[in-house]
Structures
1.
Amino acid sequence: MVLTGISGNLSVALYLASMAEIGQGRTLTRVEITAIAWAMNIFSGIINTVGTKAIGRMSTFNVWWTLGGTFVLAITLLVKTPVKNSPAFVFTNFQNFTGWESRGFVVLLGFLQAVYTLEGCETAAQVAEEAVRAEILAPLAVVGSIAGSWLIGLAYMLSLLFAVQSIASVQATTFAIPISQLFYDAVGPQLAQLCLVVVTLAQVMAAITNFTASSRLFYALARDNAFPLKKQFMTLNRFQAPYWGVWTSVLIGCIISCAYIGSAVAFNAILSSAAISVMLSYLQPIVIRVFWPDSIEDFGPFCLGKWSWPVNFASF
């Protein structure tokens, strides 16, 4: 979760750098982009330290912002794009810019992006101790986040694919983040700025809540004697925030963000390995439910019953 929050804050920095280049023609250096990422890490830490009660309202707002923003983006791209791609291009065209010759391996690399978008679906479980009727709402939130991500992501991806004017142009872009080139080519500089604002604000709120989840994870690990400095990481401030976990997340974020100064490839490699590691952590309880189905004797109200083993086996 820490690495997910870090990547989110760097993404915000890259979006802001792209907006500066589109709006003012100014190209930010890697040091400046990293400095913005640091500022976002610290901002996320401050919100999670003193704004505990506001985070819930912000998360609710982010749900509606993401829904409304996706609708606005899709309509803007589909209406304003001068040349729209055909369904054949969207659903059947295959282009390989990776340098790898194996099409199967390239497809697997493509799945890595999809995996990254599903990181954090377990956040509801990590903050369940602060929820009312967590035994019902936490699992529903996990399932709902996956279903919502799939539906919203599908609508967003389809609108991007119908609107992209030149994949080569996106690949060769000088903007800090390539999606900015797609927006710029499709709808022009002014509407491209609007699209970037929608995505950036959603990313800011998502990154803040990632640090919320990581701080609660540190708290839970310390409580269960699985993490050092138990007393410190279980300490709450007057806003009921586990601030040791919050600022540990910020510190790790600032340190890892520095890798972007030296090499964007190295930073992306760290995040890619993080995505794989998160999926491996998701695999652990699935393995237990598949090979030791009787290991849990007491079930909560959210139970798959006779479908439990088949569903877990399919997940495995």
2.
Amino acid sequence: MRRRSAAVIYGVLLVLRVLLAAQPAYIHPDEFLQMPEIAAGDLLGLDVMRTWEFVTAQPIRSILPIYVFSGPPLLLLRLLRDYIGAPLSATNLFMATRGFTALLSLL
């Protein structure tokens, strides 16, 4: 009985995690807006506004975390766009990066 209760609690928390991953972020906009924007510009060839932290000859922020967390889902979107003509929309970009982060949180 105890094991079943733990499985139910885990299932409820897992559903909650997925639902919250689809919500817009207001606490840390850099994490969910600025990071994918930089990666989308580099990996998808989109016209984006790079913030001052990344445009100088000696940037103050590293691009590595951006590529680690935003790169794989954006590369998947690029493959889908190039091979089956899937559209790139702001919603697709947002959900792909947030979904990937939610999946990583399960590890």
3.
Amino acid sequence: MRSVPESCKDRKWLALGKQLAAATDRSFTVMSYNVLCQKLVKRTMFPYASKSSLKWKTRRPRLLDELSHIMPDIMCLQEVYTKNWGDTFNMWFKREGYEAQMFQSVYKSHGVSISWKKHRFQAIDQTCLRMDRTTEVCGESLTTDNIALIVALRFIGVAKRVL
């Protein structure tokens, strides 16, 4: 791992038991991270944050520092702004040795992505799901347009086993 970014220094991490920590050819790391679609950033939602910390030019290098620090084998991102997928995340994944897929909501400006280290895994199938469109809550219609991306992966160089 690389040096700990400033934004991670105060985080509390859970330690794995010794039996889980031993690396094998079938062990792998997974990270799930909501990157907060830049288009959804509203000052009123984050009153504790400085104005500059909510801007993409500040958030971008911090997010990439955190991803670079963790470097999991499989990474699942939520609320990926389509614009930032093209100019930031997808380019970063390629440069760092990941394959990546993104699935965008039809009615929103963001989506989800799954990436994996291409020297460890091969994608053998994928499915995109649209789980709902309109839900009724307390007599009101609420449009959610929830989506999901599922990617089936196979270890490279290990007996045929699908994740």
